[in-house]
Specification:
The complex is a heterodimer of chains A (about 800) and B (about 270).
Chain A lengths: L1 H17 L7 E9 L10 E4 L4 E4 L5 E6 L3 E7 L6 E6 L5 E2 L2 E3 L19 H4 L5 E3 L2 H4 L11 H5 L5 E3 L7 E3 L7 E5 L2 E2 L4 E2 L4 E2 L6 E7 L13 E7 L8 E6 L3 E11 L3 E10 L15 E14 L4 E16 L3 E17 L4 E21 L2 E23 L2 E20 L10 E2 L3 E16 L3 E15 L2 E4 L7 E4 L2 E4 L8 E4 L4 E19 L2 E12 L1 E4 L10 E4 L7 E14 L4 E18 L15 E17 L4 E16 L8 E2 L6 E12 L2 E10 L3 E2 L2 E5 L2 H4 L4 E4 L5 E2 L3 E11 L3 E3 L8 E12 L7 E8 L5 E7 L4 E9 L1
Chain B lengths: L2 H15 L1 E4 L11 E8 L6 E6 L16 E4 L2 E7 L2 E4 L10 E8 L2 E8 L5 E10 L8 E9 L7 E7 L13 E6 L9 E4 L10 E9 L1 H14 L22 E7 L1 E7 L2
Parallel strand pairs in B: 2-15
Antiparallel strand pairs in B: 2-3, 3-6, 4-5, 4-7, 5-6, 7-8, 9-10, 10-13, 11-12, 11-14, 14-16
The chains are: A mainly beta (about 800), B mainly beta (about 270).
Chain lengths: ~800, ~270
């Protein structure tokens, strides 16, 4: 294993040597918080006017700027907050400057015409293909059944789309569903969906901040090819107790937060549960039916000193669907993160985390006293990670870190429910893997116009015993039989190779260079370039569209090689109207190798031979994205447009020819608008237009009456060779804020400010019957017919939100 | 007990929540192919080979039978009877444990297939058990059988159940259709098995048909059910052509069945 450590350590040492202190400099550093609730603010711009240099706070609200000795005027700016100016004297030595920003109420009245540097971030920051949406904006977007859903909001951004109408699965720049790294407080959420994917696991009330990387992915992230959705939970109000919540059509939610020790420690607990199952007992047919989801977010933090802070956060979510006691299934995510922020010096910030994620599903069949079983499947993911930031100077900073990950995959445990059941107990062998990652990157500003960040991530992935692999005749887990891909023939004389506990039996090493370049053309515009290589060692095996929980994750191994992607992107970024309007145009090209394609007729049901159900393919995706956004004033929102193409190829699929990726959409246009009519009333709307997704069209029909009577069988043409009708949808919302009052909402509280609001929404306002899928059937007269299936038309919802 | 059965039920729920409408989709015609549907069984006179052709999707052409093919099974000639169906001239019953070879010459091309006729397990008796209403199942009698299986390796069974059946009227037998394999049932020990998701009322006559199938045929039927189940929406697998064990470019299957039938009248 040592050889795997040498290269990254050398890289770190080299970067460390480069990072030696240059000249006589003093440092101002600190943490920026929200004055209202004490939450640390991410991405706040700290700017020294005299030197025209600045830095943004990191994900823990920390910043550091090292400059020549002197007296400076520092401005602290953040969209939606009042700008602060502070004189800092760095003549004698380093200074610590912590501060809190107050919300800017005036900006809503479109009075402020700001030239704050913070507003120029779109142009200046050395990042591209990344979008951050304020959670307050998300709450204004009309969504299905009024549920606040960050994933649905993300799907309105260019380059990102839903995997089917209503789905929470993301398709980013032509990537697969499993090519997205979804993180909640650094923990991987393996299935970010509720209710067959129609809602996401993220409760908007518990979320502080999120951003999505579609490209130019920094070196601290790895493990997925297409994107990173980095979601941060609220820390909890450290100043005052707050209760907030909402009562909706589908579910209700309640969040309680407050200080444990004022300004030192706080908590946040946020829960949500659906209640449509409450009405099932009223129906004879549904009284034994289960259908619900629920989730709970908990966060605690404790400030030990100015230099040390501890965080603990956890998420637990569960879905359950059961029918008549005969069968049911459920799935859930559990994530737990313990973090320690330590400021070693005013230039060196280090975050150390212990993270645990678990995703499991269960399937219950209980047909009869002697015919029943439960089947479970799960993945455990435990990791230890260190992330450091070293602020050498305002023009030079380092990021570095490591992640040590241990995975246990439980592909299937089948257990009879009753002792009389004829279904035997069985367990598929566990799989274990260990993944190490080391990364370092250096952000360097060259002169006044150029910023460059270069770095690399080295990932090492190993299968670990105890475990076993299946041996196939000729070493081929799949074979071609009569033109069809089939599971390979197991070597009956030597069926398995067994590995002892702790034995490493497959190792893959990935070198992942990352690069970002920004060149400022002038104060309002810039051009950017990025490149990233990503390796993915975990693969989602799924043969149906829905997130039913029946899909499972499997590691790279002897037969399933790591997926790899290279992406290059270039963009032009321009702000207008004194930075009130941000615009960008980006082109990208992505190449994917070893994509995991499920073969036709795959048997994924309690089958150890996963490798016999998949084939390796390749993919390519390219396109151009336009994005114009206005975040200030009475009218806010954005327009996004994507022109793109995404294709796949695999031997023995589609005659080996390239074919359209299922979610390849040539055009994707989104429009999101929120208009404040009065200080208490606003309306919102979102519109999507998308070219139809690809599907495989019938070529010929025939019948096999001995098997299926008059049912139609189809001989298909080229894979994904045809298109669904175009997709378009308009959603509307009306928000009415009640006048703020003083009230005693519960007997335990004294009289306190109470805020309430009504949100009325209409999903698919003009009732477009967007095709979800097609079917080939005989009509009532026995004539072959094609039917379009569609889901949601005219879905009204009302939600009451409150806060006190 | 395949997941797709669950998906079929879920699809039912989905159907309740979704709508469908006919669309005018341009379905381009493709190359016409020969379709061979062939079964060789241990029941006398039930073996047949049906040779037809595919049609463009919207075509109203019903004259798709191939009536001039040359068909043999292990050298035994099957002659055309009607509508593209070929049968042996003399009474014929296949034998379990035998490998059968199909040879069809049609439209100038030769199509071949091979299949081992696997033996069935024993079905010793059938009985009924009253069940109250459960979910979407009405109260009624569930049908059980007592089975005994001493076949050493995993074997596959294609089971159909219905209210009545004759060899001629096979199409009536799609009331219940299940595939299961012997790794889920005990080996070498008698067991009873409740046939799932059905309820019968007194005086109703139930027909149970158990057929042994090869894994290849098991997979074909599974794929066929998936393609034709009409399970739309989130539970739909990507569209795919059916596999076939017929070589030469034809569509369809060549199946060999050891068949056990049980007729039971609910008391």
């Amino acid at each position: 294993m040592n050889k795997y450590l040498i290269t990254p350590l050398l890289l770190l040492l080299a970067l460390g040597a480069f990072a030696q202190k240059r000249g006589n400099r003093h440092t101002v550093s600190g943490t920026i918080k929200d004055a209202r609730n004490g939450e640390v603010l991410i991405g706040v711009n700290v700017f020294i006017e005299e030197l025209k240099i600045g830095v943004a706070t990191n994900t823990y609200g920390f910043y550091a700027l090292s400059v020549p000795p002197g007296k400076y005027k520092v401005s602290i700016t953040y969209i939606g907050y009042l700008t602060q100016h502070q004189d800092i004297d760095l003549s004698a030595g380093d200074q610590k400057f912590n501060t809190e920003l107050a919300e800017d109420k005036k900006e809503l009245k479109e009075v402020v015409i700001s030239t704050d540097k913070a507003d120029a971030r779109n142009v200046e920051q050395n990042k591209m293909s990344v979008v951050k949406v304020d959670i307050k904006e998300v709450k204004k977007i009309p969504l299905l059944l009024g549920e606040v859903d960050i994933i649905k909001a993300v799907q309105l951004l260019p380059g990102v789309q839903a995997a089917g109408d209503g789905s929470s699965n993301l398709i980013v720049r032509g990537g697969n569903i499993d090519h997205n790294l979804v993180l909640l407080d650094e923990a991987v959420v393996y299935n970010p969906s509720h209710v067959l994917g129609f809602f996401s696991t993220f409760n908007g009330d518990a979320i502080k901040d999120f951003e999505i990387y579609k490209g130019g992915i920094p070196s601290q992230y790895g493990g997925r090819l297409a994107s990173v959705l980095d979601v941060r939970m609220k820390d909890g109000n450290s100043k005052d107790f707050n209760v907030s919540g909402g009562i909706g059509v589908l579910s209700s939610r309640l969040t309680v937060e407050g200080p444990i020790i004022k300004n030192k420690s706080s908590f946040m607990v946020s829960g949500r549960r659906s209640y449509f199952d409450v009405f099932f007992p009223l129906s004879d047919d549904l009284k034994n039916t289960q259908a619900y989801f629920g989730d709970l977010n908990v966060k605690l933090n404790y400030t030990i000193s100015d230099k040390d802070k501890l965080f603990f956060s956890s998420y637990y979510g569960r879905d359950k669907l059961g029918f008549g006691g005969l069968f049911g299934f459920g799935w859930g995510n559990l994530t737990t993160t313990a973090r320690w922020n330590h400021i070693f010096s005013n230039k060196l910030f280090v975050n150390t985390s212990m993270v645990y994620s678990r995703y499991d599903y269960d399937l219950d069949i209980n047909i009869a006293k002697n015919l029943n079983f439960t089947r479970t499947n799960f993945i455990n993911d435990a990791n230890f990670k260190i992330d450091g930031s070293y602020f050498i100077s305002p023009k030079s900073s380092l990021k570095f870190g490591t992640k040590q990950n241990y995975y246990v995959f439980e592909p299937g445990i089948r257990t009879p429910i009753t002792s009389e059941s004829i279904i035997s107990a069985a367990t598929l062998p566990k799989k274990r893997a260990f993944e190490q990652a080391y990364y370092a990157s250096h952000l360097l500003k060259l002169g006044a116009r150029t910023s460059v960040e270069y770095g690399a991530r080295i990932s090492v992935f190993s299968n670990i015993g105890d475990g076993r692999t299946i041996n196939y005749v000729g070493g081929n887990p799949t074979i071609i039989d009569n033109g069809f891909i089939k599971e390979g023939i197991k070597d009956s004389s030597n069926m398995y190779t067994n590995y002892s506990s702790g034995q490493i039996y497959n190792t893959f090493i990935g070198f992942e260079p990352r690069f970002n370049l920004t060149y400022l053309l002038n104060a309002n515009s810039s051009v950017k370039l990025s490149y990233n290589r990503m390796y993915q060692y975990m693969h989602l095996i799924q043969n149906i569209t829905a997130a039913t929980g029946q899909e499972f994750w499997t590691p790279s191994d002897k037969y399933i090689k790591p997926q790899m992607a290279d992406q290059v992107a270039a963009g032009y970024f321009r702000n207008f109207g004194n930075n009130t309007i941000e615009a960008s145009a980006e082109v990208y090209y992505k190449q994917m190798k070893n994509t995991v394609e499920i073969r036709d007729g795959a048997d994924l049901d309690f089958n150890e031979a996963t490798e016999g159900q998949v084939v390796a393919g390749q993919g390519r995706a390219y396109g151009i994205e336009f994005f114009v956004r206005k975040q200030r004033g009475k009218t806010t929102g954005w327009i996004g447009y994507t022109l793109a193409k995404s294709e796949r190829q695999a031997d023995n699929i589609n005659n080996g020819d390239w074919y359209a990726f299922r979610f390849d959409r040539r055009h994707y246009l989104t429009l999101v608008v929120n208009q404040e009519i009065t200080p208490r009333v606003s309306i919102g709307g979102s519109f999507i237009y998308a070219s139809g997704e690809a599907f495989t069209i019938a070529s010929q029909r025939y019948g096999l009456p001995s098997l299926g009577g008059d049912k139609i069988s189809i001989d298909y043409g080229d894979r994904n060779g045809a298109r669904f009708p175009d997709y378009h949808r308009l959603d509307l919302s009306l928000t009415i804020n009640q006048a703020k009052t003083e009230a005693r909402p519960l007997w335990i509280f004294k009289k306190r400010p109470f805020e309430g609001s009504w949100v009325f929404s209409l999903y698919n306002a003009y009732g477009r019957k967007n095709a979800y899928t097609l079917s080939y059937e005989n009509n009532d007269q026995g004539v072959p017919t094609v039917y379009k299936w569609y889901l949601f038309t005219f879905v009204p919802a009302v939600t009451y939100n409150f806060k006190f | 007990m395949k997941n797709k059965f669950i998906y079929s039920i879920l699809a039912l729920v989905f159907i309740l929540q979704s709508c469908k409408e006919e669309i005018d989709l341009n379905v381009p015609g493709g190359k016409q192919k020969v379709v061979i549907e062939s079964e060789v069984t241990t029941e006398t006179d039930s073996s047949f080979v049906k040779v037809t052709r595919t049609a463009d999707y919207y075509s109203t052409n019903t004259n798709l039978a191939v009536t001039n093919a040359v068909v043999t099974v292990n050298g035994l000639t099957f002659s055309h009877t009607a509508n593209g169906i070929y049968k042996p001239a003399a009474p014929f019953a296949a034998v379990a444990g035998t490998t059968y070879n199909l040879n069809v010459i049609a439209d100038g091309a030769t199509y071949t297939a091979t299949s081992l006729l696997e033996p069935m397990f024993r079905v010793d008796s059938v009985f009924q058990v009253f069940k109250p209403k459960e979910g979407f199942l009405d109260a009624g009698y569930a049908i059980n059988y007592i089975g005994f299986d001493d076949r050493p390796k995993i074997k596959y069974t294609y089971f159909r159940m219905g209210y009545f059946d004759t060899i001629v009227e096979r199409d009536s037998m799609d009331n219940n259709l299940i595939l299961f394999n012997s790794d889920q049932t005990p080996i070498g020990t008698p067991y009873f098995f409740e046939l799932p998701f059905t309820r019968f009322q007194p005086q109703e006559e139930v027909i149970l048909i158990f057929r042994s199938v090869t894994k290849e045929m098991n997979d074909f039927i599974a794929a066929y059910n998936e393609q034709t189940s009409g399970a739309p929406g989130p539970f739909q697998v990507p569209p795919a052509n059916l596999p076939t064990n017929i070589k030469g470019g034809a569509i369809g299957y060549f199946a060999t069945y050891d068949i056990i039938r049980r007729r039971y009248t609910v008391k």
